[in-house]
Amino acid sequence: MKIIMLNILAKFDKICVDVIMEEKELTKKIKPSKLLNILFVVLLLIGLIIYILNVDGIENIKNILKTADYKWIFAGLICLIIEYGAEALVFHIPLKKIYPKHKYTLSLKSNIVGRFFNNVTPFSSGGQAFQAYMLSKFGLRVSDTLSVLMMKFVVYQIGLFSYSLILLLANLNFFNITFGNYIWIVLLGFVMNLIATLFILIAGINKNIILKIIQPLIKLASKIRIGKYYLIKDLESTLKKIDESVSNYSNQFNKMKGQKLILIKMYAVQMIQFLAYFSITYMIYKSFGNSGTQYIQILLVQTYLLLVMSFIPTPGSGLGAEGGFALFYKTIFVTGLNLAILFWRIYTFYLPIIFGVITLIFFNKKEIKAEGD
């Protein structure tokens, strides 16, 4: 979903259709590529632990853990729970409008499983497809689910951009001091998010403008050859699929414009989700006895770290997320920086994977027909 906007528009529907047309449920069959991604995640955790042990030493780690304030660690878990609940609610609000009898618990479960697939696929590309598939098993029309997922994505992009802009304007001096020589990385993430936000808005308002931008790029890509194979094999088929995807997106966007109250509610909850997610880092910061940096400043750094992470292709933004955290927080965390990285990834990456697996295993597979309008 984060591989620039071309893939969002051109591949999103195709991914969902491919998943839904599987003969066997994904809960019973995991493709080899998924296994490789999961292996990457496991190796990443092992590598991170080995790195921490080598750099900090066992005795130093023991001392840090002994003196840690565990009420802040517990507060981090509370933030994670709130963040999960808020994200599911953003998804649930429009679904409830379409299906009055749709239960929040089903939105929550599908969201948890969707995040699992996002975390084990490059560019977080697998979660939305599985959510559409899962909810179709409970009687929800795929077209409705895709429309809601599109609404959720638009609200997410606008929310993230506005959040980052507000925090930037409130902390200009801290921003300049903290990011220093690598400020260009942060600004690049901000600009890319701005472009993505403008792209989805323009694509919804006037699809012809976007097609005029995309089509020449596709034609150029069709002339590029890697070894014996062209980057795009069938130009006409690719252009047709892109035109259909952009047209579908534009139609869904126009329908969405008539749901202003729902969009406002989704946006408000989305901002709560961001607040809870970004607060996790502050809880870790306090748990290891750090002080001197204000809460809102931690939120600022975490927001721009997320902007940079969004364009890292590895599952869960692996390596880039850890490296970015170390780079951005090296002057903020006086003690426990490496352990902070580990705890942060446990909260935001490894626990969601565990929650997703558990939910996937124990999910009620009984077919339930939802009643629409």
Total number of helical segments?
15
Backbone structural class: mainly alpha
Query: What is the quaternary state of this protein?
Result: single chain
Strand order of the largest sheet: 1-2
| Ends distance | 29 Å
Give start-end ranges of low-pLDDT stretches.
1-30, 366-373
Describe this structure in words.
Helices cover 76% and strands 1% of the residues. With 373 residues, the chain is mostly helical. The protein has one domain (4-22, 32-362). A two-stranded antiparallel sheet has the order 1-2. A hairpin with a 2-residue loop joins strand 1 (225-226) and strand 2 (229-230). The protein is globular. Residues 1-30 and 366-373 have low confidence and may be disordered.
Brief overview:
The protein has 15 helices and two strands. The longest helix has 29 residues.
Keywords, please?
15 helices; two-stranded antiparallel ribbon; globular; 373 residues; 2 strands; disordered C terminus; disordered N terminus; mainly alpha
Q: Topology, please?
A:
Elements: H1 4-20, H2 32-56, H3 58-67, H4 70-98, H5 104-119, H6 127-136, H7 142-170, H8 172-179, H9 183-205, H10 207-221, E1 225-226, E2 229-230, H11 235-256, H12 260-287, H13 295-309, H14 320-329, H15 337-362
Antiparallel strand pairs: 1-2
